[in-house]
Amino acid sequence: xxxxxxxxxxxxxxxxxxxxxxxxxxxxxxxxxxxxxxxxxxxxxxxxxxxxxxxxxxxxxxxxxxxxxxxxxxxxxxxxxxxxxxxxxxxxxxxxxxxxxx
Length: 102
Known about the structure:
Elements: H1 3-15, E1 20-23, E2 29-33, E3 44-47, E4 50-51, E5 54-55, E6 61-63, H2 66-77, H3 79-93
Antiparallel strand pairs: 1-2, 2-3, 3-6, 4-5
């Protein structure tokens, strides 16, 4: 991100309202400005996973620091996480709820 883009981002955040979700050019990546708390303004990066441009959730994960991002990356890159999702997907992902005839 260059200096001009950073200035524009800060200006946009400053002009946004409480809980306003600011879109970025990356699908599923937003900036959110919650209300001030004790005269401190927090700003979050919200991650909303998408598949083919469609959000798979209404609300995403809020990140407020590099440490938050690193913690999620570690969890998502853990081979056991993939293994667990594979098993869940295999046994429950494609199954349809059966209809009960009355």
